[in-house]
């Protein structure tokens, strides 16, 4: 099983802009701007992979965050290859 990254939308989501990460039994929430883990835990290898992916797709993630804040569905972002 790989790493699953989700962004939830609707009025219940709060700032700062963040993503939810799921890897095996681990879950974490990461700040999009700083790539800091806000809650939870990821093994260091998986955390490095997610940080690399966020850095590559930061503009898309912020655009999706704005869509989500308006109750719209975010666009799908390509996985790390």
Can you tell me about this structure?
This protein has helices at 44-56, 58-69, and strands at residues 4-6, 18-23, 26-31, 37-40. Strand 2 (18-23) and strand 3 (26-31) form a beta hairpin. The protein has one domain (4-69). It is built from two helices and four strands. Strands 1-2-3-4 form a four-stranded antiparallel beta sheet, with no helix packed on it. It has 81 residues and is of the alpha+beta class.
Label this structure with key terms.
81 residues, alpha+beta, 4-stranded antiparallel sheet
Along the chain, the helix and strand elements come as EEEEHH
Computed Rg: 12 Å
Write down the domain tally: 1
Main pleated-sheet profile: 4 strands, antiparallel
Shape: globular
Overall average pLDDT = 91
User: How many distinct helices?
Assistant: 2
User: Would you tell me the structural class of the helices and strands?
Assistant: alpha+beta
**Strand order in space, largest sheet:** 1-2-3-4
Query: What is the percent of helical residues?
Result: 25-40%
Which consecutive residue ranges, at least 5 long each, have pLDDT under 50? none
Straight-line N-to-C gap: 15 Å
Record field, number of beta strands: 4
Strand content: 15-25%
Short synopsis of the structure:
By secondary structure, this protein is α+β, with helices and mostly antiparallel strands. The protein has two helices and four strands, in the order E-E-E-E-H-H.
